[in-house]
Amino acid sequence: MPSEYTFQKWKNTLQNLEELVKLDTEYQTNKIHDADWCDAVIRLSSVLASYIFCYNNAIICYKQNLQVQKTSDILAVLKGILARIHELRHQVRRLEGDYYPYISGGLIQNKLTFDDVEMRDILINNKRPAVIRQMIEEAFDKSKKLQEGSLTGNIEENSKHPSANMDVNWWDEMDSKEEKKTKKGINITAIYKVQVKISEETLKRRSLLALIEAHEKTRQVTLSNNLKRLSRIRWEKELRGTLRTTALLYLRERSADIVQKLFRAYFKVKRQRISRLQRDELLGLMFCCKTNFDETKRNESTKYPEISSLLSKNIHEWQTNYLRLKNDFLKRRGDDIAEDIQDFVRYWFKTWYNEAKFFHDIPKEKQGGLAKILEDEIPTPLEWLELYKIYLEEQRLKKSKTAMEMKFEKMEAKREKHQLKLAEKRKKKIEADLVKKMMKNPNLNPGYSYPMSTKIMDITQAIRKYKETWLELDLLNINDVKEKFVRSIDVENMCAEAKKEICTKVEESMRAELKLLRISLKKDYDLENAQMPENFKEKNKYKKKKRKPRNQASLNLDDIKEKMEGLISNGFVREYPKTSLQDFLGDPQFAGDDLKYLYKSVHPSGWEIRSVWWEKCEELTHGFRRILLVGGNKCGKTTLVRAMATLNDALLYQIDPANLDDSKDYLQDLASDIVTCAKATQPSIIYFRNVHQLYYKKVPPNIVINADIIKKTLVKKIIKKISKTDNVTIIGTCIDPWLTKGNTILKHFQSVIMLPQTTYSTAQMILRNWVNRHRIVPCDLEIQTLARSLRDFSYGFILDTLESFLTSDRIIHIASQGLRSQDIHEYFLQNGTQPKTDHDKYKKWFTDKTHWGKFERKALEERLQFREAVLRWKEKEQKKKKKMTH
């Protein structure tokens, strides 16, 4: 059962996390440092890999948790781990000098694999309100109805002709029924099965393929029926006694011995072949075919589809039970508790009158209200009197000074504070420069210290809070701890919440009594001709203001709905298929660490891009971001955008400059509509396709758009109108960055991600998935050589060409004569319209123009200089030793 599995997995994960936090704290307290740069990177990457492994296990427990009360505690632990992961990634990047993570050395130390530390899921904090979701659903509904209504006229005209339905086949009718079923339900999250416009040639080819599949199905059913018929005939003959007698015992034993010898010889040859293939794979001669695990990875989140329904049922039951307990408690003890609180506050008034001849204010509701009095968080009368004396002295001094003198004192204090900050900055800069010089000197190199953490306390506090509540309950191993809820915890929380409600009700009457007491106290002071003490503001600690939620009532939903319908009908709001990060294919760069330690530049692979893109997906709900995806044509940019939208449940706005009108008024209205709808429906993604067309240094003759007007009126306006706190991300794609104005495009899109080239392993993965997906393709097809020849093409072009390869004629040819890898290679050569991408150009532009490219080049140059200095120092030391010996 998921609850038992989740319970045990969470206990193991928490234990591993405690050990990891202990090790991490030990590194920081003992001030561990490594003499070599490589050792420091491996140590940091090993700790990072362990935290990612704990995060992956913890998020599985969080998603599959059926215990309602544990959800908030597990979430607190998860947030602490996530903050520490981001901190460690930043430290590894600064130390290694590269934006892309290469952690194979850390994985080896912890005996982990790349699959263990690949982050696939994120924590979604902000969800759309129900009003906005309903508005989006209605807008998509209306646009679909308008599109269907525009097609009904053509359908009715075609239905009048008798020859219109002559070519309709049974498989076309089934497809149309399935399409009608899918059109009935519309997902609010705008993740739909997109109906692609298909050409007549493709439809004809699919109909022929369906006919072939129907023939194959008929053959299988006929074979099954014949086998059943033959088995029944055999059974009847056996009952009648007319069946042929079995062979003698000694003949059967001899035949069994022969079969055993043959099978033993077969499995011996098989074992030898497997060992030979494993040896060749280790030597790098060839890569063995592996099972396709893409479908299982894609369906990991839906492994237990009933969990969401069970959790919602448990939450509803928990809330009803909680409210019932609370109402019963208020009925039974509400009046008694109110009287006790009133008596306590009246005694507090009496104490203040006896000791200070004054009545302190009841704190406001924002400051805690009566709860602060009950918890004894207000100063005692004697402490207040001392503070009051200091306050009177300050007031006396202020009266003796003029307004200009007070203003000058404030300015002087502010200037001194600013000078102290500048002095501290100068001191830190001098220390950093000194350390940098020492790092370049082999004689004075202090090594690399393990960096201190500011986020590890969040993890320890979350673990401590969890153990205070659940440590003893987890040991009981009862069902209520694994799923549903624990009644004793509800009783404690309910009592505290009920008392708070009673305090708010009693507070009004107590404030009225305090007002009367102060009036009478004022009369007593007037009779004695004395001055009554006054309240003064006590200095409180500064609290960070929380971000206020958006007020949906202030939004004009009708206006937004109208704009949304216009954007959908014009194709600016796109439906996208559900996509995971694993759909962006690519293996990790296994030799990344080794190449770095050899002072060589490393090209990231698909795994490193997925790891960086996961961070960008997680940042979508943390404010405004601008990202530029750089790579060749059909290299997976749209796949990454759709994966981000799927993970964050975001709405996708897609803009192509080639399809826009050059009118200034039209572009201004379009920018205003997109910004308004994107802010209202956040989290949102604004996707600019082929944005390099707007930033060309020299516009090519085939580009006919007015780039300056679109750039100034649309792109700049959208960027300017979106604030930092909006959960909106703008993504632009660029194919030829070296032909663009680098400074301008990087000003508008600050974060740059360069997509990798198609490697041999990626091409082999595409071919292996293609073979497993189509049964007609022989499973023993030799794809190693073919993958080597296709590694320079973009994998989008490879996928499209492979799908167009299987025509009806070719399927019949494969069934009769088989398939060779040469046939596929010749088809690629015939349809090779896609040019090969020159990845060296992209790497050079990334190194010369972007921030992380310059940082990587500078770090590599400094390491090479240090290596040369070490070699020179070693030569001098050897010469000194030779002189000493002579």
Residue share in β-strands: under 5%
Helix content: 55-70%
The span between the termini is 80 Å
Count the DSSP helices: 30
Largest sheet report: 6 strands, mixed
Q: Please state the structural category.
A: mainly alpha
Query: Unreliable segments (pLDDT under 50, ≥5 consecutive)?
Result: 158-196, 286-304
Radius of gyration: 36 Å
> Strands of the biggest beta sheet: in what spatial order?
5-7-8-9-6-10
Arithmetic mean of pLDDT: 80
Topology, element by element:
Blueprint lengths: L1 H28 L3 E2 L2 H27 L2 E2 L3 H26 L7 H7 L19 H31 L9 H15 L15 H41 L8 H35 L10 H5 L8 H50 L13 H5 L6 H20 L2 H38 L7 E2 L6 H21 L2 H4 E2 L2 H41 L29 H13 L3 E2 L17 H6 L8 H14 L5 E6 L6 H12 L2 E5 L8 H17 L3 E5 L18 H15 L6 E7 L7 H7 L2 E4 L5 H14 L10 H6 L5 H11 L2 H10 L3 H10 L8 H11 L1 H35 L1
Structural write-up:
The chain is mainly alpha-helical and 886 residues long. Among the domains are: 2-126 and 449-487; 307-427 and 488-527, no CATH class; 555-584 and 623-754, Rossmann fold (3-Layer(aba) Sandwich); 781-836; 852-885. The chain has 30 helices and 10 strands. It has helices spanning 2-29, 37-63, 71-96, 104-110, 130-160, 170-184, 200-240, 249-283, 294-298, 307-356, 370-374, 381-400, 403-440, 456-476, 479-482, 487-527, 557-569, 592-597, 606-619, 637-648, 664-680, 707-721, 742-748, 760-773, 784-789, 795-805, 808-817, 821-830, 839-849, 851-885, and strands spanning 33-34, 66-67, 448-449, 483-484, 573-574, 625-630, 651-655, 684-688, 728-734, 751-754. The strands form 3 sheets. A 6-stranded mixed β-sheet has the order 5-7-8-9-6-10, with helices on both faces. The chain has a two-stranded antiparallel ribbon with strand order 1-3. Helix 21 links the parallel strand 7 (651-655) and strand 8. Helix 10 (307-356) crosses helix 12 (381-400), helix 10 runs parallel beside helix 16 and helix 17 (557-569) packs across helix 21. The longest helix has 50 residues, at 307-356. The radius of gyration is 36 Å and the shape is globular. The termini are far apart. The model is unreliable at 158-196 and 286-304 (pLDDT under 50).
